[in-house]
Amino acid sequence: MSNKENEPLDDDMVVVMTDDEGNEYYYSEEMIIPVGEDRFALLVGLHDEEHEAGCGCGDDEDEDVIIAKIVANAEGEEEYIEPSDEEFAAVQKAYDAICDEEEQE
Prior knowledge:
Elements: E1 6-9, E2 12-18, E3 24-35, E4 38-45, E5 65-72, E6 78-81, H1 85-104
Antiparallel strand pairs: 1-2, 2-3, 3-4, 4-5, 5-6
């Protein structure tokens, strides 16, 4: 993950990720998950011409979902980076806790 751009689209945050080869991938920022002092984004891939995500139900085996750590770059702008293995495990645990809490409501 190397670059981030935000575009408003019907109240959804659309993130453009650019890989090392210059290929662009579009994601919808579905959720921010706080873990300690850090924040992580749950990003769901947008694969059609209108950049609209599926239902997000988790039933689609090919669903493109990534977790990205939100950090400030040298200019003070937010960008996404790949979390460490330990951070990823902590985010999974926090996400599970959020889901468990929502199920109890």
